[in-house]
């Protein structure tokens, strides 16, 4: 006799409606009417009765450990089956200790930092009774108009995959960390970042080739790293909403990747397939969702109200439903909920560890590595003796943590003016030029250095916050021109959730792209400005010169008519009114160190598929500052059946240098690095000539060619 698993024996005793309940996630205020939890999205009238809500399998968001305990208890007191609720929540860049927004974190090019961020976020979330975090967002982003670039890791496949993988490891590493780990739900499957014109929720129409090559690898890496759940995206793909897209949910996820993760719809998205024009009504949506492979619906009641009818009239087999429910119960078992339904929730511990000194220190470490220095004309680091005028809307603004930190609080952190205090001779947050008085202008003029703190408000990025114009809002360019014209030396600090147009600003004496850095923003910026730390961030997205260049990314194809400045031919791939290149390229970022690259060596100029290629480069720090350098390795496969990008990041390492230190940095490439995915997701590799490029950014590289032979 085959022994039943624990999940199977639980399922055996469940009624059909109890099983369907497990496939539904409800917001907490359905149970606690004065719930403190913040839940995004407009709630429809779910039309659920008391019996139904006590069959639901999970809850979205929770206000505190106290609330979690209260809700779980109330639920178990009323539920007939006694299967505890799973609590899930959006922990995007920290729970109460807030870390840099993901696009900033990506600028660190440091997966170890991402792992630490996720680890601490998990510890804090766990004590509040959260079992599953909706993070990381693995969507590749090439369009800065899209508000959600702030939640992702940028335009590169390897960087997005590595950061996603590290976050998943940090959240979930039960074996390594034991208590205090959570499960995670990666999102948004798939291709959400390619929404047309950068408008949120808009159509996605990408080739299968681009899907497999560019968009899918990060989700796959995150799943392989141990994510137990995957959320579908709001967009359509090939004309079918991802929520009910069988190709994505069955063919790719289950068949190609053999993945067992639970699938969950995004907020109300199963209902929205009707608006998409992909289902007649809820009955149709429920059928299509289930058949496509959607396990749980979030914040809507299509399954709860319709699935039972489909089973009763024979459209859906109950055994197919059992498979889904088993996945959910198995996860509840894995998370220890049957041993302790209140698992994690600990009122005292939450108070003790959230925002602890250790966690804030980690937040500062992450912030220090996330800032990208785009210009420095021998101004930074400041000596400490300068008289500084600090102006602009961020001069004494407490909202520096960035969008979507559900439990993060702006008002408990220090402003720039509070931290820079003793160096300041003048502070003003006025953002409009005409508001400055004559006296104020004179005071600013008399300062040795002006620090101009400008950017986008946190509310201008994030979900449903796309912009068609990504220049500095509210005439801040005028404020910049004014500051430039009256300052002896000008440091510009930019706060933003996306790449902005910076053309004018590049004549700053120093330009720091700060994104939003979390709880320790001001402290980290202070340390960087005064040289207590050295900038090491690199851009995870290309910064365009104008909106017309979008989408712009470094790993594009060559075309049949690549632009060449030296050529007299006008019929080349170019614009008449703007260069092809971005203003600041992917992988770019300055340091107080000056790094010199030389002696790029390959172990061989021809390797076979069984061999690996060893690469080394000598890097010398030419001055006395100490700091990190992100060493980047790109390849180009010159000729293939399916054309390959002109450059692809294949490896990167963040290496520490003492003053005047030289180091030889090594890398290794093997057949996997030289292979590519075709339009069916199959890996291919071909004989031929490749180039390997090693450098400090995607455009500043040393290169050597070699041959690859399949044997
Ligand atoms: C977002 C998801 C999020 C969910 C739950 C949706 O609107 O797209 O990223 O996880 O809400 O809050």
Main sheet: strand order = 1-2-3-4-5-6-9-10
Report the β-strand fraction as a percent range. Answer: 15-25%
Give the tally of structural domains.
Answer: 3
Overall, the morphology is: globular
Bound molecules: beta-D-glucopyranose
Counting copies of identical and different chains, the oligomeric state is single chain
CATH class of the largest domain reads: Alpha Beta
In CATH terms, what is the architecture of the largest domain? Alpha-Beta Barrel
CATH superfamily of the largest domain: Glycoside hydrolase, family 3, N-terminal domain
Q: Sheet with the most strands? A: 8 strands, parallel, barrel
Secondary-structure topology with pairs:
Elements: H1 6-12, H2 16-22, E1 24-26, H3 50-53, E2 58-60, H4 65-78, E3 86-89, H5 102-107, H6 111-127, E4 132-133, H7 157-172, H8 174-177, E5 183-189, H9 208-224, E6 229-232, E7 236-237, E8 240-241, H10 246-256, E9 262-267, H11 269-276, H12 282-292, E10 296-298, H13 302-312, H14 318-334, H15 347-353, H16 357-370, E11 372-376, E12 388-391, H17 416-420, E13 424-428, H18 438-446, E14 449-455, H19 476-486, E15 490-495, E16 510-513, H20 521-529, E17 595-602, E18 606-608, E19 613-621, E20 627-637, E21 648-657, E22 662-669, H21 671-674, E23 676-677, E24 683-684, E25 688-695, E26 701-709
Parallel strand pairs: 1-2, 1-10, 2-3, 3-4, 4-5, 5-6, 6-9, 9-10, 12-13, 12-14, 14-15, 15-16, 18-26
Antiparallel strand pairs: 7-8, 11-16, 17-19, 19-22, 20-21, 20-25, 23-24, 25-26
């Amino acid at each position: 006799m085959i022994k039943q698993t624990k999940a199977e024996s639980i399922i055996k005793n469940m009624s059909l409606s109890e099983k369907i309940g497990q496939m539904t996630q409800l917001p907490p205020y359905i149970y606690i009417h004065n719930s403190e939890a913040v839940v995004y999205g407009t709630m429809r009238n779910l039309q659920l009765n008391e019996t139904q809500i006590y069959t639901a399998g999970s809850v979205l968001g929770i206000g505190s450990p106290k609330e979690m305990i209260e809700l779980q208890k109330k639920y178990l007191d009323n539920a007939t089956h006694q299967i505890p609720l799973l609590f899930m929540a959006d922990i995007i860049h920290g729970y109460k200790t807030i870390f840099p927004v993901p696009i900033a974190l990506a600028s660190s090019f440091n997966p170890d930092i991402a792992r630490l961020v996720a680890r601490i976020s998990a510890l804090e979330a766990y004590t509040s009774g959260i079992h599953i975090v909706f993070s990381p967002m693995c969507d590749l982003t090439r369009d800065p108009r899209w508000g959600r670039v702030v939640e992702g890791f940028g335009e590169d496949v390897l960087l997005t995959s590595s950061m996603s993988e590290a976050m998943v490891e940090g959240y979930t590493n039960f074996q390594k960390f034991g208590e205090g780990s959570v499960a995670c739900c990666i999102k948004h499957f798939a291709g959400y970042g390619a929404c047309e014109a950068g408008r949120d929720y808009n159509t996605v129409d990408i080739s299968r080739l681009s899907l497999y090559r560019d968009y899918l690898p990060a989700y796959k890496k995150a799943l392989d790293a141990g994510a137990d759940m995957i959320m579908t995206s709001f967009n359509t793909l090939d004309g079918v909403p991802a929520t009910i897209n069988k190709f994505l949910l069955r063919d790719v996820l289950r068949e190609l990747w053999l993945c067992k993760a639970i699938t969950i719809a995004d907020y109300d998205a199963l209902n929205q397939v009707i608006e998409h024009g992909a289902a007649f009504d809820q009955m149709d949506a429920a059928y299509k969702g289930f058949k496509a492979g959607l396990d749980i619906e979030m914040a809507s009641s299509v399954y709860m109200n319709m699935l039972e009818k489909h089973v009763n009239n024979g459209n859906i087999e109950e055994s197919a439903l059992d498979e889904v429910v088993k996945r959910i119960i198995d996860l509840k078992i894995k998370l220890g909920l049957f041993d302790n339904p209140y698992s994690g929730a600990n009122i005292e511990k939450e108070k003790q560890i959230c925002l602890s000194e250790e966690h804030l220190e980690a937040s500062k470490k992450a912030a220090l590595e996330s800032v990208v220095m785009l210009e420095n004309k021998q101004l930074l680091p400041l000596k400490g003796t300068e008289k500084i005028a600090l102006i602009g809307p961020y001069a004494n603004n407490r909202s520096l943590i960035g969008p979507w930190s559900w439990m993060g609080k702006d008002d408990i952190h220090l402003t720039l003016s509070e931290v820079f205090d003793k160096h300041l001779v003048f502070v003003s947050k006025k953002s409009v030029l005409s508001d400055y008085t004559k006296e104020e202008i004179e005071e600013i003029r008399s300062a040795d250095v002006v620090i101009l703190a400008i950017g986008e408000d946190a509310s201008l990025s994030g979900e449903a916050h796309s912009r068609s114009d990504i220049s500095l809002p509210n005439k801040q360019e005028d404020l910049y021109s004014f500051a430039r014209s009256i300052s002896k030396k000008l440091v510009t600090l930019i706060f933003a959730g996306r790449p902005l147009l910076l053309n004018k600003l590049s004549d700053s004496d120093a330009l720091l792209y700060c994104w939003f850095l979390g709880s320790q923003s001001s402290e980290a910026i202070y340390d960087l400005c005064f040289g207590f730390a050295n900038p090491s961030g690199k851009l995870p997205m290309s910064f365009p010169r104008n909106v017309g260049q979008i989408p712009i990314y470094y790993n594009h194809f060559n075309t049949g008519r690549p632009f060449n400045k030296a050529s007299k031919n006008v019929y080349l791939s170019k614009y008449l009114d703007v260069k092809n290149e971005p203003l600041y390229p992917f992988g770019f970022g300055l340091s107080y160190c000056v790094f010199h690259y030389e002696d790029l060596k390959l172990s061989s100029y021809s390797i076979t598929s069984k061999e690996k290629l060893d690469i080394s480069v000598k890097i010398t720090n030419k001055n006395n500052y100490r700091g990190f350098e992100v060493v980047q390795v790109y390849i180009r496969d010159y000729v293939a059946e399916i054309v390959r990008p002109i450059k692809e990041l294949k490896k990167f390492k963040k290496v520490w240098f003492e003053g005047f230190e030289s180091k030889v940095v090594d890398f290794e490439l093997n057949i996997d690095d030289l292979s590519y995915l075709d339009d069916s997701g199959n890996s291919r590799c071909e004989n031929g000539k490749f180039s390997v490029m090693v450098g400090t950014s995607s455009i500043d590289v040393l290169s050597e060619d070699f041959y690859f032979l399949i044997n």
